[in-house]
Amino acid sequence: MSAWATWLTWLEDSPPGLAMRQSPWLYPVVEITHILGFVILVGAVVMFDLRLLGLSRKIPVAALAEHLLPWAHLSFALVALSGVMLFASDARAIGVSPVFYLKLALIAAAGFNAAAFHIWFLKSVPAWEQNTTPPPVVRAIAVFSVVLWVAVIACGRLIAYF
Ligand code: HEM
């Protein structure tokens, strides 16, 4: 058995993995937490992306970011923790699912895309803060973000089938 297969078996038979399979209520609670987490996360991200695409131009971009970012960070922690628990419950099967790894790669790409905005374009916000069309590169980042997060959700749902 490969080291990776051994680790997946260890995780599936670990106390969290066992509890997820044996408790009558833990799996549904964790799955509901996962769904709640990504509803808030993707909801916050897409609302910000729509602003970056030029909708609701009266709303100052910095003020909207200040409101939405803490929810995005908090809900990402919730999604990641519940995701690891869901993974532990069926690690041997999900650990060989190409859709699961595609999902993780898309989450990483969405993270790099968001980081690119924060590192290189957030400081230019005062120039297009209100009642102005954001620069084309910022709108491109917003479109890429929406497409990536929708793809993450699609992969999340498809894990059970592939
Ligand atoms: C960060 C953004 C994430 C989003 C938007 C997301 C989205 C989803 C969605 C839509 C589902 C299907 C839920 C259902 O049908 O009931 C799902 C299931 C799942 N997710 Fe995530 N997820 C995210 C992060 C993660 C992470 C970081 C992990 C693991 C490290 C993970 C592991 C799983 C697993 C194992 C399932 C259950 C698959 C199954 O057995 O049906 N997710 N996710």
Kindly, what is the distance between the CA atoms of the first and last residues, rounded to a whole number of angstroms?
A: 22 Å
The average pLDDT value, as a whole number, equals: 96
Hetero ligands: protoporphyrin IX containing FE
Could you list the spans in which at least 5 consecutive residues all have pLDDT below 50? Answer: none
Name the shape in a single word.
elongated
Pattern of helices and strands: HHHHHHHH
The total count of helices amounts to: 8
Largest sheet: none
Give me the Rg, rounded.
Answer: 19 Å
* DSSP, total strands: 0
Helix content: over 70%
The structural class is mainly alpha
Percent of residues in β-strands = under 5%
Give the tally of structural domains. 1
In short:
By secondary structure, the chain is mostly helical. Helix content is 80%, strand content 0%.
What does this protein look like?
The chain is mainly alpha-helical. It has one domain (3-158). 80% of the residues lie in helices and 0% in strands. The protein contains 8 helices and no strands. α6 packs antiparallel against α8. The chain is elongated. The mean pLDDT is 96. Bound molecules: protoporphyrin IX containing FE. Residues 31, 34-35, 38, 41-42, 76, 79-80, 83-84, 86-87, 90, 94, 107, 152-153, 156-157, 159-160 line the site of protoporphyrin IX containing FE (HEM).
